[in-house]
Amino acid sequence: MDLPFDRSRSIEDLEGRRWPSPPGDATTLVLAVHALRKSPISDLTVEQLARLIAQDVGLPLLLPVGVEILQGEAAEGAAGGWFDDDLLTAVLTRNATAWAEAPELAGAIKDVLDMLGHELSPCLRDDADRFRAHLPH
Known about the structure:
Elements lengths: L10 H5 L12 H10 L8 H9 L4 H22 L5 H7 L3 H5 L2 H14 L5 H12 L4
């Protein structure tokens, strides 16, 4: 997947929006998300990417990256047995609006799910069913 933006730039740079500093009593999650927005997208680990997607941060930028990673992992996951993945959970559980704005990505995730077949963990199967239920028919 050829992404139309420079992955060496951060979400903050690409969005052109700087968040104010988190409050002094901010949770670890809030502090982490604020810091990750400033990191180059290419430097984000899969776990960090999942964390940001699960918090609905930078979705237009990060969903394509997440889908690309999942497409690469799907073949191996389908061959390796029970597939359970935080990134896939984060992607599947985004609001239907996110997918309505990116139908080509939704189709790619449907293909990933089809490739994984019955290898999904029971929790992911439920998320996958809810995701599929919101796709246009």
